[in-house]
Design brief:
23% strand, TIM Barrel, 5-stranded parallel sheet, binds ligand C2E, binds magnesium ion
């Protein structure tokens, strides 16, 4: 979710007032910058780009009225609240001055500032998070705001869980809202068609990154999430093979993760594309198995070679006998159909031990490694492996 930013800049020469206002504003949801004098205020105005200002009218050296004039000349768009212990008429007149200078005046805070008044006015100016728009998302790709993080995928080898691959997970590094997670924008990308450009980006970036790691002596497999909406383009398998060839990588290094909704729209075409991907030796994983979208029939109708157990099950393993029973059955089911199993959401040693006994071929989860920027992956590969519980 996005906001244009709830950034509050407070200028007051009394440190206790700054602390008080700062604490209340932060608790409500503002990012806060405090300025003790006009000079600090000007600097913060420039770099912090506040959305709301609280101005003390009486300060040594520069007073609030001068600052109002300055803000007017700068064409500031932030809302301005004035605070002072002076009588109401002075405050009202300062407020009118602000309006005359074209400022968005937000009202008056009479000192001593009452907690309830402060909370009321701050809440009124707190912008509610809004969903990103398709245009912003489109621009995000052009402006290189999309980044790919990688989460280790581990396999049991010689009694140790070793990192043998990574899953590419997209994030949006928004200049104001910070890091936005895919659940907040993938549905928008899918409904507006931006998903095609987004997926191209993740594939190109991920495949390029595999090549870079290999050059550093780190040989890994890559999993990329493929939106069901994209399993429609008949030339997709060829384009992908071309991309792998350009980086001198074997197709078997790449697995595409798809949720079952994929197959529902046009089963014949989906099967055509998925089969050609498998013929070309790409991996195909049925993602989020065990959620509402799951359907057992996809497992044998479509040429998947991996089943990915949804993290909602993985997260429950350490405390739910039912979750353990289901996962054990899914592992057996997948193995009987000739598929490998990867369990997601492994957050505890207990879950990992259970999965080892149950025979999950791969595991993924915070206990083994969170999604991290590409640079952190070689360290994760060479880091302390999780020892197996049983020989
Ligand atoms: P997913 O493919 O099932 O990815 C796994 C999600 O589980 C990731 O969330 C990952 O960070 C999270 N996770 C992994 N281990 C743990 C754990 O131990 N505990 C907990 N609590 N969470 C864990 P993320 O990165 O937020 O991705 C969410 C979903 O967004 C993905 O689910 C995938 O469906 C979608 N997505 C991400 N990147 C892309 C992309 O490039 N293209 C498409 N189409 N979808 C993507
Ligand atoms: Mg996935
Ligand atoms: Mg999943």
């Amino acid at each position: 979710m996005l906001t244009d930013g709830n950034r509050l800049l407070v200028v007051d020469d009394q440190p206790d007032i700054l602390d008080f206002v700062g604490q209340v504003a932060e608790a409500i949801g503002f990012k806060v910058r405090l300025a003790n004098n006009a000079q600090e205020f000007r600097e913060a105005l420039h770099e912090f780009k506040p959305t709301l200002l609280i101005l003390d009218l009486q300060m040594p050296q520069t007073d609030g009225v001068e600052l109002i004039r300055e803000l007017g000349n700068l064409g500031t768009r932030a809302a301005v609240l004035i605070s002072s212990g002076m009588d109401q008429r002075v405050l009202v007149s300062a407020e009118q001055l602000g309006v005359a200078h074209g400022l968005k005046m937000a009202g008056i805070l009479q000192k001593p500032i009452m907690l309830a008044d402060l909370e009321a006015v701050l809440t009124q100016y707190l912008q509610v998070p809004r969903a990103p728009t398709a245009d912003e998302l489109r621009r995000a790709i052009d402006r290189a705001q999309l980044v790919v993080h990688y989460q280790p995928k581990c396999r049991l080898r010689n009694g140790e869980w070793q990192v043998v691959g990574v899953e590419a997970l997209i994030r949006w590094q928004h200049p104001e809202a910070g890091l936005i997670y895919p659940d907040a924008f993938i549905p928008l990308a899918e409904s507006t068609g931006v998903i095609a450009a987004l997926t191209d980006f993740v594939l190109q970036e991920g495949i390029r990154q595999l090549g870079t790691w290999r050059g550093q002596g780190v040989d890994l497999d890559l999993s990329v999430n493929l939106s069901p909406h994209l399993v429609r383009e008949l030339d997709f398998p060829d384009r992908l093979a071309e991309l792998m060839r350009a980086h001198a990588l074997d197709n078997s290094r790449l697995t595409l993760e798809i949720t079952e909704t994929a197959a529902l729209e046009d089963p014949a075409r989906t099967r055509d594309i998925l089969t050609r991907l498998r013929v070309k030796n790409f991996g195909l994983s049925l993602d989020d198995f065990g959620t509402g979208y799951s359907s057992l029939t996809q497992l044998y109708r479509m040429p998947f070679n991996e089943l990915k157990v949804d993290k909602s099950l993985g997260l429950e393993l350490h405390q739910s006998r039912e979750a353990r029973t289901i996962v054990r059955s899914l592992v057996d089911l997948a193995h009987n159909l000739g598929l490998k199993v990867c369990t997601e959401g492994v957050e505890t040693a207990a879950a990992l031990q259970f999965l080892e006994v149950a025979g999950s071929d791969f595991v993924q989860g915070y206990y083994l490694g969170r999604p991290v920027p590409a640079e952190a992956i070689p360290g994760a590969v060479h880091g302390q492996p999780k020892l197996a519980a049983v020989g």
